[in-house]
Amino acid sequence: MFYRKKRLSCNLTCTATISPYGVELIKFFSGGGTKNEYFAEYYEKLLISMREKYPNKKLVFLLDNLWAHKSILIMKIM
Asked: Tens-digit pLDDT profile for the chain (78 aa)?
């Protein structure tokens, strides 16, 4: 008989930000999808990075309708 080993949280999520200049920040998360805390950590690093890279530019971020993009954590960071 063939038995499959049970895999625990074999989910890998890639979060990336692109601009006309290329990839601005990329991060991989493992263990169960895009959680609010994971995305908030990514978004905070993104804002710091973009403000340093483009100090005199107005930054506009477009996010899709993923629930993690609308969490209270993200609203506090903004």
From this structure: 555 666 555 678 888 999 999 999 999 887 766 778 888 889 999 999 999 999 999 999 888 887 888 888 888 887
**What is the rounded CA–CA span in Å between residue 73 and residue 6?**
33
User: H or E element: which one contains 17?
Assistant: strand 12-19
Q: What is the Cα 30 distance to its own chain's centre?
A: 12
Beta-sheet strands, E only, within 20-75: 22-30
Q: Residue ranges of the domains in the chain?
A: 12-53+63-77
Amino acid type, 18: I
Closest-CA residue to 73 (of 52, 47, 43): 43
